[in-house]
Amino acid sequence: MTNPVIEAINKRMSVRAYDSKPIPKNIINAIIAAGNQAPSRGKEEKGSKEFIFQPWRFVVVEDSEFKKKLVKTTLPVWKKFIENMKKSHPEMYEYVMMTYKAMEEPKDMVYYSAPAILFVVGPIGHDVSCALACENIMIAATSFGLGSCYVGFGAMVKGDADIVQTLELKDDERIFGPILLGYPKSDPSALDSIRPEKREPVIKWI
Length: 206
Known about the structure:
Low-confidence stretches: 190-194
CATH topology: NADH Oxidase
Number of helices: 6
Number of strands: 6
Number of domains: 1
Helix content: 25-40%
Strand order of the largest sheet: 3-4-6-5
Shape: globular
């Protein structure tokens, strides 16, 4: 059995090569609205009896200069991680480095030159709620024919004070993702042959 929602879930994949074509703002807004519809757990704020729902906020990055700053900040972290793979996972290391060398300048193995980088920001302790919003965002992006990718390295930006200030990151907040958004450089269906096969779900009926 299937329907448009199931089809979008099944088609979703992590895309790491994007066309430079910009995404219309109404589509980005619709994707964010889908993220905003995610369920969230109420959590009492410190020093207050108020319960906070929908704890997330969103920052959309399209500015090319700010993207360069993000890459400059996160790429050294990525390189250090990859260097550690040299002994532990040599085959994967060789493959990643081959991809890196073949990449056009400026080399961006973190954000993959995506036209839009969507930071989902939320308070520490609201991890499950914010993760649910991220999943909604990626499924919604697929439904609009966009590619997406959740990139953990992209969140490692707190070492740069200017980035922290621009994103308005507070000490008690963390970044979820960020999520890359853009039109895939190639037809996603052409990648089905190298797409990791999902194992069958483990189910117990009672």
